[in-house]
# Entry
Amino acid sequence: MRSYLPWHDPREATRLLRYALHRQGFTHTYQSNGNGMSVLSVLTELTVWCKDGSFIWNEDGSPVSHTIDDPVGAAHRIAERYRHPTADGHTLTDSVREHSA
# Structure
């Protein structure tokens, strides 16, 4: 009998990524599951797909992937990329919080 590892299930791996992103300040996320994959909407410009053993998202029009057995690492990469100062001095996640409050 094979032991259960949460990252073998895209739904569970995405749930773990969602919690890790929540700890990074991305608190308004939406997860959808189906057909062996899971999708996480993080920001208007950021959607993360979980399929075939990877988290996949686009940065500047190019796909980026991160193994699903490291959701905390994926959350860190996403936070590093998307938590940057805007023209008004806020971080992108601050701007998202203000507009969704």
